[in-house]
Amino acid sequence: MTRTGGPGAFPSGVVAGPPRMSAQDRRQQLVDIGLDLLATRSIHELAMDEVAAAAGVSRTLVFHYFPSKGDYFAAVVSSAGARLMDAVPRDPDTDVQTRLRMMVTAFLKFVQRKRGAYVALVRGASGGDPKVLAVLDQVRASHVIQWLDAADWPVRDEVTQLAVRGWLGSLEEVALAATASPVARETVVELLVEGLLADLERATRFASAPGVLSPHG
What we know:
By secondary structure, the chain is mainly α. The protein is built from 9 helices and no strands. The protein starts with 22 loop residues before the first helix and ends in a 10-residue tail after the last helix.
């Protein structure tokens, strides 16, 4: 009998299946499925059986990559936060006002396109899970630094970071409300940019005042 094909070739009539995913690719596939499902539900409502079925794998395999639901939810939230940062690029070759306007505009457009997933991320995403809460805190801390960098703001003390974190909360709420608001986007952008710069100036004044930081933490 004549043998065809090179070493490891399949016998005639046998069809090779799809190549096996690497561990990294499989993990990312599962996270991406979670991100897609966020469009219709909050993260703690995701069913692991549904994630497994969408990936075409067993529930057991999902837990091979993510030991608990909390680990999986945390990975999805972390990825969502990274995507949000990527959607708001910072152009170092522009002045601060222009840069902030561009970033806020990009943020508003992202929320308009991904409203369902964004709502699931910023409202009730943790479901009370401490791992997800910790990741959410890291995501917000990273976003604070992103906006401070964009504003070319050299002060990074606790008061300033707290002020920016408060502004981020306003940004999130305004972005969601603006999708159904008759207010022109340009006006919304100016409102948010001026609000950030005003908060930064105010934080600087507070930070230099005595007794601002509590000795008890």
